Every structure is written in C-alpha cells, then in structure tokens.
Amino acid sequence: MWLFFTLATTLIWGLAELFYKKGANPEEKYAHLKISVTVGVVMGCHAIFTLLVKDIGYDPANLIAYLPVSLCYIISMAFSFFGMRFIEESISDPIENTSGAIVTLMCVIFLGERIAAGSAVAIVLILIGILGIGFLENIGETDRKKKLGKRMAIIAFAMPFCYATLDALGSFLDVYYLDLETSPLVNVTEDTIEEVANTSYELTFFVIAIIFMIFMKIKGVSFDLPKQRDKVIAAVCETAGQFTYVFAMSGNGAIAAPIISAVCVVSLILSRIFLKEKLTKMQYFFLFMVIAGILILAAIEGD
Whole-angstrom Cα distance, residue 119 to residue 294? Predict the structure, then answer.
C-alpha cells in the first residue's frame, strides 16, 4: 500500500500546484493572502478533526514551542503564492523543490555531516540549472522586466528562492524538533511527535489565516471563501497530500522520498497541458538539470 500512497501524494501535490497557480491571479492584488487564508482554514479544520478523533495528548504549549518551524513553512508558502502571480509554475516549482539540496548543505555546514560524491554532483547540477534559468530570465523572450518593470521582475523571480530557503530552514529545524531526545515539544512520544508537530503547524496556519482575514477586512478587500474554487481545491489537495505522505513515508521512506520529489515533474507536465505554459528549449534544458539533480539527491539521501 505504501506505493499507492506514494504515487497518490505525488499526483495530489502536483494537482495542488496546478490549482495554486490557477488561483494566483496576477491582477488580484491580495491573491496570495487569499490563498494563504484558504489553506489556513482547511488545515485548521484538519487539525481540529485530528484532535477530535485521535488521542495524541496534545498540549497547547506546543503551539509556541513549534512556532519557529511553523513560521518558516507558513511564510515560505506566502512567498510562493505571491511569486505564482508572475512566474510560470514550470519555472517556480523546480526552483522551490531545491529546498532539499539546501537542507543537505545546511547539515554539512552546521552539523558537520559528510555527503556522498553523488550528492555533490546532484547539488552542482541544481546550481548550474538555477544559474542558467536566472541568466535566461534577463535575455530575449524571457525578459520579465518588459512586462513587470525591473523592480517587480526581480522581486517576483526571488520568491521561489525565498520559499526554498525558508522551507529548507524549517526542514533543518525539524531535525531537532522531531528528535525525541532534543525536541522542545512537550507531552510527546515516538508515536505522536510527528502528529503533534503537524497539528501545531496547522493550528498556527489557521491563526495566521484569521489575522490575514482581519487585515483584508480592514482594507475593504472582498473575500468570499466558498467562491474561491481554485484556491479551495488547492488547499484540499495540499492537506490531502500531507495525509497520504505520512503513510507513504512510514511504508518505505527510502524509495518513497525520491518518487515524491518528482512532484515538480508532475507540476511541469500539468502546467504545460492545462495552463498552456510554453518555455524555450534552453529553459527546459536547465529546468531538467534542476529536476535531475533533485531526483538524484533524493534517491541518494533517502537510501
């Protein structure tokens, strides 16, 4: 069954990226906040459901204890939602998925861990691919400055990198938080620590969603949640993928991890089919270098 859940996670998260993009209207000033609110509400409902049907011995103090990690993930997603308004999903998603490579580098730099030669090659592939994409952003047909202006083009292209960095920091902190011996989380066991952490994250996202809703209300921004079809579907897919991910990783994580990393491939294909995104041959070349590096790294590190 683990293979079923692995493939389901990859497809569901790929669908989530597609609907995130569809809901990120470049003409809608607060689209990124509306997506964040939608995701926060859905995750909040899932967290409440978990607390009602499962006995995980949740202590509300964990909301504060896990806050640094939660904020890394939440802010990174807000950056991603903002960037989606201006950057093709085919480009942003592979860049965002380089967070795994950044985590590996953090472990080498801060924890003194060693990496295999294959991992080093994978990171170099990712780096070359990103540099190539960055170079193409400033020449010819891919010059985003003509559409957005220099300042906004730089900000928009920076968003996937901001996501990757903050998501990697959250994952790096999870190494500490999800280790029972070092974790500051209270009233947790080996069986409940991951669910307690995830519930804390989802409840924090729910609180942030309420804050964003109040902010938009003050600004006079119209926001009717039931009418946000694409945003709601994306949020449901995001949460459903998180659910299937747990079962995928618990079955055979070493093989599941590199398969799930292929979500950026699924996203690229879906964006090409449904969003009609067209890239140049050189863009595809550098993107596939990034994707190849991600898959190689996931396969080696997950072994």
Answer: 9
**pTM, entire model:** 0.88
C-alpha to C-alpha distance for 186 and 147, rounded to whole angstroms: 50
Q: What DSSP letter does each residue of 229-275 carry, written as one string?
A: HHHHHHHHHHHHHHHHHHHHHHHHHHHHHHHHTTHHHHHHHHHHHHS
Residue among 127, 43, 102, 108 nearest 77 (CA): 43
Q: Which residues contact 122 (CB under 8 A, 6 or more apart)?
A: 101, 292, 293, 294, 296, 297, 300
Neighbours of 185 (CB within 10 A): 18
Q: Do residues 183 and 177 lie in contact, with contact meaning Cβ atoms separated by under 8 Å?
A: yes
Token digits of residue 217: 């209300």
Please give the residue range of the domain that contains residue 97: 2-301
Q: Which has the closest alpha carbon to 63: 173, 207, 190?
A: 207
pLDDT digits (tens, 9 = 90+) for 217-232: 999 998 888 788 999 9
Domain count, the chain: 1
Within a 10 A sphere around the Cβ of 138, how many other Cβ atoms? 13
Identity at 81, one-letter amino acid code? F
